[in-house]
Input
Amino acid sequence: MRVLVTGSSGFIGSHLCRELANHGHSVCAFHRANSPLSLIEDLPIDRAIGDITQPDTLSNAFEGVDVVFHTAAKLGKSTPDLTYRVTVGGTRNVLKACLDAGVSRMVHTSSIAAFGVPHIKGLEPRNGAACVMKETHSWNYRPERWRYAHAKHLAEMEVQNAVALGLDAVIVNPSLVIGSGDINRVSGEAIMHVARGNLKVSSQGGFNAIHIEDVVRGHIAALEKGQTGERYILGSENMTHQNFLKLTAEVVGVDPPRIMLPGRLLRALSEPVTRLQSVLSLPFSGEAMHKIGYYFYCDVSKAENVLGLNNRTPIRQAISDSYNWYREQGVH
Output
């Protein structure tokens, strides 16, 4: 197949390019002129220069393409305007380019963040599923407190609009992705803070995590087996923040954080942290602290049953792969 990958220089996009090329597909990496290409520079693939926020740069690149993996989005610090322009407006432009070019199938990389927050805060799920999020979970959070997630939610609405117009598109919702190549340090920041001994406290709450290789497998399975217009959570292990930090400390060979701070206290500090994070190196952003106390646990049975995503890589291995990659890059 002729496959185009947006966000090709990023964490998920670069791994997708590598896997697709390894399986003999003709891959076109779509990226901006100033994108860092260290993750894909050794691959035998084509490259197309453009910007998803500029529709006139898309048409030539999408011509003759069979499949599009849309992984591009705005990560990290940004203004609300830029976040929405890239993640929502850029997705709208990619969808139109797919429709105009007659692309056979599009796989849209969303996130479990697009679901909002679990319906119950401060209660760890045990035997029941009251707090466990499924694909039917809908957006329920204040946009101004989580712009990235709200933009991801709106981008999914754009995908559904394109499906209504006839585009064969599937949505995947990865949880926290861990592994080598996390160039923007989405998950790697916490790992490196633990390794440096900067993270002395833990907190209430939890999340689901998954190895990058399993995320790539999930994308390809969604291409092959996913149903048009459906969402599929790509996740692996549900764990508390405390257990994740303890596991990370074991992997990197340091003492784990031994102090557990109440979620209420940390949430109260979110506004001061937001004001200080531009001048201090802090383990968590003020935006992240707003959500302390929630357990972002996921039910991954749909991806298991429909996409066949079983036998996933242990998170211990994902942490080790991430940490070793950073060390190879000279990050200590």
User: Anything to note?
Assistant: The chain has one domain: 2-328.
